[in-house]
């Protein structure tokens, strides 16, 4: 908290401040009963085409999460590999849709990592996740003999 009496600090400043850290992990239910909120778990991540696949294949990824408190789960898909210059790039925003279709037509051949993140909004912020899984996947250049 910051306080200013209008006589000492500049309009954008403050005269004094105090900070405190706290963690809220209980919610009050009907009748005042307390319950602890649990994190969701990522149960599975599956693709409709097994790795490896030729460039140009559309790969549908489906994740399944479970939340013991039946909170709404949001999902995010990220990709890392030759087409992303080996940097993690989000392929989706946080969404309740647990499916992502990867059109590999514009992807370079090589080894990729797909990361699926989940959260329920009560634990991790938008930059983090309550649970995640990474899956390797290979895209082949058409016409190259293995």
Describe this structure in words.
With 146 residues, this protein is mainly β. The chain has one domain: Sandwich (Immunoglobulin-like). It is 0% helix and 42% strand. The chain is built from no helices and 12 strands. It has strands at 2-3, 16-17, 26-28, 34-36, 41-47, 53-54, 58-66, 74-80, 89-90, 99-103, 110-119, 131-140. Strands 6-12-11-8-9 form a 5-stranded mixed β-sheet, with no helix packed on it. β3 (26-28) and β4 (34-36) form a beta hairpin. The chain is elongated and about 75 Å long. The chain starts with a strand and ends in a 6-residue tail after the last strand.
Most strands sheet: 5 strands, mixed
What Rg is obtained from the alpha carbons, in whole angstroms? Answer: 22 Å
Strands ordered across the widest β-sheet: 6-12-11-8-9
Quote the average pLDDT. 89
How many domains would you count in the coordinates?
1
**Contiguous runs where pLDDT drops below 50 for at least 5 residues:** none
By secondary-structure content and strand pairing, the structural class works out as mainly beta
Instruction: Return the CATH topology.
Output: Immunoglobulin-like
What sort of overall outline do the alpha carbons produce when their principal axes are compared? elongated
Level-1 CATH class name: Mainly Beta
Strand content: 35-45%
Number of strands: 12
CATH architecture name: Sandwich
Give the SSE string: EEEEEEEEEEEE
Percent helix range: under 10%
Number of helices: 0
Q: Distance N terminus to C terminus?
A: 63 Å
């Amino acid at each position: 908290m910051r306080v200013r009496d209008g006589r000492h600090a500049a309009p954008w400043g403050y005269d004094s401040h105090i900070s405190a850290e706290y963690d809220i992990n209980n919610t009050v239910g009907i009748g005042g009963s307390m319950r602890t909120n649990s994190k969701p778990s990522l149960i599975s991540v599956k693709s409709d085409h097994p790795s490896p696949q030729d460039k140009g294949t559309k790969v549908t990824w489906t994740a399944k999460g479970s939340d013991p408190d039946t909170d709404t789960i949001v999902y995010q898909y990220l990709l890392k590999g030759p087409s992303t210059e080996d940097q993690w790039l989000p392929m989706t925003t946080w969404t309740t849709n647990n499916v992502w279709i990867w059109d590999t037509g514009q992807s370079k051949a090589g080894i990729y990592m797909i990361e699926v993140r989940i959260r329920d909004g009560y634990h991790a912020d938008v930059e983090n996740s309550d649970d995640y899984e990474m899956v390797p996947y290979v895209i082949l250049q058409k016409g190259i003999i293995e």
